[in-house]
Amino acid sequence: MKWVSGIGLALTIICTLGSCNNQPQKLRGLIIQDRTGRPVPLADIQKFKANIFVFFSPECPLSENYSLTYNTIFEEFQDDLTNFYLVFPGTFYTTLEIDSFCQRFEPAMTVLLDTGYALTHALGATITPEAFVVDGDGITRYSGKIDNWAFSLGKQRRKASEHYLKDAIHALLENKEVVNKKTKAVGCLIE
Predict the structure, then answer these.
(1) Long-range contacts of residues 99-103, Cβ cutoff 8 Å, at least 24 apart
(2) Residue range 27-78, pLDDT digits in tens
(3) What is the CATH number of the domain that holds 180?
(4) Residue 143 CB burial class (10 angstroms; 0-12, 13-18, ≥19)
(5) How many domains does the chain have?
């Protein structure tokens, strides 16, 4: 009987330390449609050193403001080690609104429609724009702001001085620890 309670205690300790985190299995098991209706299996994230997911809303002013920034980051880091997604969560916006957004801002990366919020919930996204950097094992290494240009709703700096998303991608690609693992995203609530 002592060995049974010892096993239970060991499992509790292991799960408390995070080894029972099932986020990687959740992510790799998801299949999300892109905006053309093509299924995109997220099992493919294991092929990349850094997987970048940024949640946008077609009517959120900060999503519009960050479109060029995210495209620029994509262009800077696009290679065989990185994988970029632009995610529109939920069904609050029509396909026509999302298509219109994409025509205006021309995202260069794969656009996902997370109509059932599966990816949104798996990563814990609550704001648009909100960025996540996930390693090849499916573990989130960074979440939060793209940079510090917008520091509050309706309040921006002239120029960003901290580049959280770029720093996290650099760290992962250079096999370093991400210094700022989490920042508080500023923007529109995901509906």
Answers:
(1) 99/35, 100/58, 101/56, 101/58, 101/63, 101/64, 102/35
(2) 889 999 999 999 999 999 999 999 999 999 999 999 999 999 999 999 999 9
(3) 3.40.30.10
(4) buried
(5) 1
